Task: structure prediction
Amino acid sequence: MSLRDIEVKLLRALVAIVDEGGFACAARSLHVTQPTISQQIQRLESIVQAPLFERTRRPLLLTPVGREVLAHARRVILLNNEVLGRISTLGSLDSLSLGCSVHFADGLRTMLSELAVERPQLKCSIATGLSAALADRVAQEELEAAILLGIETPRCEMLGRLRVAWYGPDSPLPEEPVPVALVSERSALSRRIIETLAEHNVPWRSAPWCSDPLAVRASVRAGLAYTVLTANVHHTDPSLRPVPSGTLCPDPEPLPVYLAFSPSAREPVIGAARSAARATLRDVPLGPP
Result:
């Protein structure tokens, strides 16, 4: 079967004839001549290999094929307009302020590299931090968008669920309760860690030297504490060792990942933020929402 493409302008002619009530009125609405409209319909009929109108009837009536083509024509035209509108608005965007959870900071290099190629005119300023703090900045419109872990905002969309795993010493520490590295009580990941330990009745204490993500990872690398990180982080950082099954307790349930937008964010910002989020999270183990 040979491939046949339908030009959008042929579909526009069909829709105009139906909406305007005839060939002459359609020609006026599309700013072309009536013979041009007639030729476009003939061309469309040759592509679908069937008549679209009952030519012997007045007023014009669509054939069953014509009604089917008309329904699809409206959808194609709508999609065509949407694509062109999005491309037009994206091209006009010259800056983007984006927040990114510290748990996804490893993906920023990929994201910035892709933006430099795909949207060289776009100046992207990045802020990293805990998701709760970034969500506050989005609400206050200090940031136009942010990639957040476990923090839902009034205007956001879920990108998926992050699979996480325990990291720490290869064998159980002699201490009890076990030391656990937590970033902050405001961290959704810290709360999930605490919930998981409580659910499995694991006695634990918070490692006092861990006050930021770098300190958390350093304590885990040194074999001084356990924590939960992205399930595949050891693929890029072999110094972070997954805890063998049965050493501590099961891995926590996946956490939702959100792309949050400021109250005033418009379509150009939303489209650019979505592209940036996709690039940032490309190598992150995300499950379905």
In short: The mean pLDDT is 88. The beta strands are 95-101, 123-129, 145-149, 156-162, 164-167, 178-180, 204-206, 227-230, 255-261, 286-287.
